[in-house]
Amino acid sequence: MSEPNAAAPVVVKPADLPVFCPNPGMPLWSSHPRVFLDIADAGEAMCPYCGTRYVLAGGPLQGGH
C-alpha cells in the first residue's frame, strides 16, 4: 500500500461539490480513474488512488441539501 500524499490538502468550497479526483488542477500524466468523494458529512476525504486529501472549507455541512 502506498503512503498518503504528504502535500497540503486541497480545500474546496461547498459550491464546488461534488468533489472528484483527479481534480482539474492535476497534471494529465498523473491521472487515475475519476472517483467522486463524499466530504459533506465528515468535512474531509482522501482519494483512494493517489492519497490526495480534500478538506471542505467551513467543515462538515449542517442539515440537508
Describe this structure in words.
This protein is an all-beta fold. It has one domain (10-56). It is built from no helices and five strands. It has strands spanning 10-12, 19-21, 35-37, 44-46, 53-56. The chain is elongated.
Looking at this protein, list some descriptive labels.
65 residues; mainly beta; single chain; 3-stranded mixed beta sheet; 25% strand; elongated
Q: Which structural class should the secondary elements be placed in?
A: mainly beta
Main beta sheet: strand number and arrangement? 3 strands, mixed
Number of domains: 1
| Largest sheet, spatial ordering of strands | 1-5-4
How many alpha or pi helices? 0
Rg from Cα: 12 Å
The H-and-E topology, N to C, reads as EEEEE
Provide the β-strand percentage band.
Answer: 15-25%
Q: What best-fitting shape do the alpha-carbon axes yield?
A: elongated
Q: State the end-to-end distance.
A: 35 Å
Low-confidence stretches: none
Q: Return the average pLDDT rounded to an integer.
A: 87
